[in-house]
Amino acid sequence: MRTVVLPGSNLEEFLARLAVGHELIVPQKSGASISFAAYDPSSEVVVEYQRTLLPPKKFFLPPEEALFDFAPGEGFRQKPTSSERRILFGLHPCDIHGLRRLDQVFLEGYVDTYYQAQRDRTLIIGLSCLPDEMCFCNSMGTDLVTDHFDLFLTDLGDNYLVEIGSTEGNDLILDNEDLFAETSDILLRKYKVFLATRSNLFEQKLDTSGLSNILALEWDSSHWEETAKDCLACGRCSMTCPTCYCFTIFDEVNLDGASGSRCRRWTSCLYKNYALVAGGHNFRPSRGARLRQRIMHKHKDSVERHGISACVGCGRCQAHCAAGINFCQVLTSLRGESSESIVG
Amino acid sequence: MNQSLAKVQNPYQPSRAKIVDIRDLTPDTRLFQVMLIDPKEREQFTYRPGQFCQISVMGTGEIPISISSSPTRPGLLEFCIRKVGRSTSSLHRLVPTDEIGIRGPYGNGFPVEYMQGKDVLIIAGGVGLAPVRSLLYYILDNRDQFNQVTLLYGARSLQDVLFPAELQTLEQHRDLNILVTLDRGDTSVWPYRVGLVTELFSEIEVAKNTVAAVCVPPVAYKFVTKELLAKKVAGEDIFMSLERKMHCGIGKCGCCAVGSKYCCQDGPVFSYWDALNLPDMI
């Protein structure tokens, strides 16, 4: 992969130039948390952060969006989508891996044209990070990225090592050549030191070996209902998850009572009505069954369906859980139960 | 950047369709005959027994409804719709010439090719007759491809029997065995059986090469499959059309997930083997 160097002091200017001709999204302070939001020259870009409250999925699958306008006699007319070029700056490796997972869902089989349109107009500039006590991306194998980005910046002190992942990423470098320098051997050594140092910083660990097999065997475990006693079924883990994509489709009617919009909105398998069908049958009436669904889907079902876990180890689910549920601990205790049963 | 070369059609776009006729089947269930308005779309619309469509009523939303008509009888599409919720209630308020939206067909449908040369045992409960009616007419229109055909049908009460006239006509077919039972009924008005659909199994012989097609209420699958297994029908030869909440129909919204399968795309027809493999399926 072609690499160049961006002196740290040039980052501000680089972003200011990218904002010309692109819709630029950067991590910024938003109350007590960090949020991906539109850049303006007065924005304070946060380059050192652990995780944004919402993952970048909100730019590809918005929390709520109108799919069609409808009116009697006119049928369903597709809402026009923007084609303005957009750059998402500052995505961590876990979030880039999250987008890869969403791509599998929305671009394979039937192509979701709304998602595709957002994806097609967006360039991704990744940014390195250091873990906090909730991060476990290195357990999930998502602490590094080799593709699915246009540029990736690794913070090596005074300089960023810039990996170029696409021709369009390369164009961004060529258009701003004066801001970049050639890679040096010292910097490559620093990069290796950075990787080694970072991998020692992870406190949260998850043993993923045989995890989907173990989950399949622990279907009837009492752990599910036990953990669910704490769960509020609020869906916060789903909303903040970079790979949770479930949505409902519904119609919103205008004041004329006839025309309106067909919309979709995020939902969560934790919600009580998620698996409720007309007639009143609920396929997952208990909170334990719904919590199990979420964890199974991440660590087992996705492995079976897409060959890869849907968890990217960003830690949002456990960092934001209102009940303080630590998903890594839940999985670890399920594993523990299986080894105990052998001993017992 | 994910540059896609080909612009594809929006899979959420409903096609415009007109209601041609509505027939009352029971106090809460109606048969809607529907025609796609665009002649080209009408011509291109092909389906398999057991597939479903997403039906839109503007302002109310979209619901998955299985196709009740058979692809062997082209022309109008038929949907048998029980009034149970918001969307079905608004469908019931419509009249002929009203417009609805249709997307589909979706799902796998029944494996009619696999059923060829075998006995076909169809088991339906309540509104579950709708998808297997498509299969039944498909078989009747290709009668020489199938061996003995039996339909076991259970309804709650006499007034809940769907297609009573059709069932009576079909009963006259010498190459078709139809047994209907009511959960409860006045035996002076209803001279036939009273009891659950599972009780009909005592009245039939099940040959070795039998394939079963089942569509019953969610709670009944366990009991029906138990009877079938007791009659030595192989697990992989039991095909069940399952219900789940399906918003998109195209494997995106996630709501109909059953383990690693999506009911809308990998189903709605699953074999008993799938159910053994995916614990919360039935």
Topology at a glance:
The complex is a heterodimer of chains A (344) and B (282).
Chain A: E1 3-7, H1 11-18, E2 23-30, E3 33-38, E4 64-71, E5 75-78, E6 86-91, H2 93-107, H3 113-120, E7 122-127, H4 137-140, E8 151-155, E9 159-164, H5 167-175, E10 181-182, H6 185-199, H7 211-217, H8 223-228, H9 236-239, E11 247-253, E12 260-266, H10 287-306, H11 316-320, H12 327-343
Parallel strand pairs in A: 2-6, 6-7, 7-8
Antiparallel strand pairs in A: 1-9, 1-10, 2-3, 4-5, 4-12, 8-9, 11-12
Chain B: E1 15-26, E2 29-36, H1 39-44, E3 52-57, E4 61-66, E5 77-82, H2 86-92, E6 99-106, H3 112-115, E7 119-125, H4 129-141, E8 149-155, H5 164-171, E9 176-182, E10 193-194, E11 210-215, H6 221-230, E12 238-241, E13 257-258, E14 261-262, E15 269-271, H7 272-277
Parallel strand pairs in B: 7-8, 7-11, 8-9, 9-10, 11-12
Antiparallel strand pairs in B: 1-2, 1-6, 2-5, 3-4, 3-6, 12-15, 13-14
Give the biggest sheet of chain B. 7 strands, mixed
**Which oligomeric form is depicted?**
heterodimer
**What distance lies between the first and last C-alpha atoms of chain B, to the nearest angstrom?**
42 Å
Spans of at least 5 consecutive residues with low confidence of chain A:
none
Strand count of chain A: 12
Strand portion of chain A, in percent?
Answer: 15-25%
- Tell me, briefly, the overall form of chain A: globular
